[in-house]
Amino acid sequence: MKEKNTKKLSHGRPSHVNPSPRKPNVVFLIADDHRGEAIGAFGNETVQTPVLDSLAASGTSCRNTHIFGGLSGAVCAPSRACVHTGIPIFRATIGKDMMNREHSSVIHPDVRVMPQTMQSAGYLTHAIGKWHNDKASFARSFEGGDKLAFRGMSEHTKVPVHDYDVTGAYPKEQEYVEHTFSTELFTDAAVNFIEDYEGDRPFFLYVAYTAPHDPRTAPEPYASMYDKSGIPLPPNFVREHPFDTGDMTVRDEKLAGWPRDEDEIRGHIADYYAMISHMDAQIGRVIEALKAKGIYDDTLIVYTADHGLAVGQHGLMGKQNLYEHSVRIPLIFRGPGVPEGKQELALASNIDIFPTVAGLCGVDLPEETEGISLCPIFAGEVGSVRGIVGSVYRDVQRMVTDGRWKLIRYYRSPETNTGTERIQLFDLLSDPWETQDLSAELANAGVIERLASELASWMQASGDILQEKPVIPAAPLA
């Protein structure tokens, strides 16, 4: 393996664009597996996230942002494709069928992605950390980079990375292993970039962490920060999920024993929070570097994640489901043009992130972008930009919510012979933890019919290849 690279990072190939000094710099931070509620400022009284709390206090948090979903168990790759493109997964990526793993990771070559668009608008684009989509889309997006991880996951102290490759090839033989803890490794590279920044063009710095994804092995003192005996179990903890969701034995679900043990789940939550708190502190280093450079107030900071995670909720461990813990993500904007101290509850999708970044930076969107900018909400012009949001998982689950009512439709997969033909209905206003399925109550028949129609329309508009199937059974199943 190649030895650790300690040289100063290179900006790579030159870009023949005009500088745009009036545009804000952008630091785009994306975590792996950080669910939307696991931030202190959002009401979680156990996890410690002072840096993210500060960003939320000085910016705007979009608290009702959902992922579009994905067509494979590795939800992070399709979710990142949606963030990068602002387009539903069915049109953002290539592939032939629902179970084709490639369909969820390889971005269509004709689609212009967020960093590529920012570069065309005069930005210096630089990437650090995990990409997890195809190398061709990466190569056309970034002028430079450091500690680039193209794999889905690894041990946090054995991270396979590449140096920036001006050819865009990134051959296997040029990959080497770094032993600095991943979160610190990527933060070191981000701080180096900020310190070396010369300021002739605004920059778009993409920093993609692999935390808090398992293996959840935070370094000390964070590993000992949370005593599992003091960790409260979530209200929706159950020892076993009541029916087959269609992916009950995927890798993530094997991280804890069946049926779920309360003490074991508390340990998993403690480790999960330790990873988040460590990452929070490292993000603080990025912010301090911006302040030391004198560019903090001229920089738009965006924090989000590729998806959430169950970690014991509903008897599940992973993200291969459409409950709120897995489809709702954190989304914080802080910087020029962003109101301070606001927590917005308007519905949003992760395909809306790219249009919002572009709007805050005064950058024109590609014609093919389908997401909706949240800037009108920030400006107080409208209260919402979406009436509903939906999400998909493989060929076994679909979801739609109007912000209060939420319908999950389950299918039995003809490919894997798994799953259950049924629905669930939740009132998120009175039951945010999704503990009471109301689908069998006759009084809710009208709500189910309305949401079923909304889901069918959303699936058709999104290009969902399950759209020809009936959305719900003839009657709700208990």
**Can you identify the CATH superfamily of the largest domain?**
Alkaline Phosphatase, subunit A
The helix/strand class is alpha/beta
Strand order of the largest sheet: 6-5-9-1-10-12-2-13
What would you call the shape?
Answer: globular
CATH architecture of the largest domain: 3-Layer(aba) Sandwich
Query: Share of helix among residues?
Result: 10-25%
Total number of β-strand segments?
A: 18
Radius of gyration: 21 Å
Family: Belongs to the sulfatase family.
InterPro entries: Alkaline_phosphatase_core_sf, Sulfatase, Sulfatase_CS, Sulfatase_N
Protein name: Sulfatase-like hydrolase/transferase
Organism: Paenibacillus alba
List keywords for this structure.
478 residues; alpha/beta; Alkaline Phosphatase, subunit A; Arylsulfatase, C-terminal domain; 2 domains; 8-stranded mixed sheet; 11 helices; disordered N terminus; hydrolase; Sulfatase_CS; metal-binding; Sulfatase_N
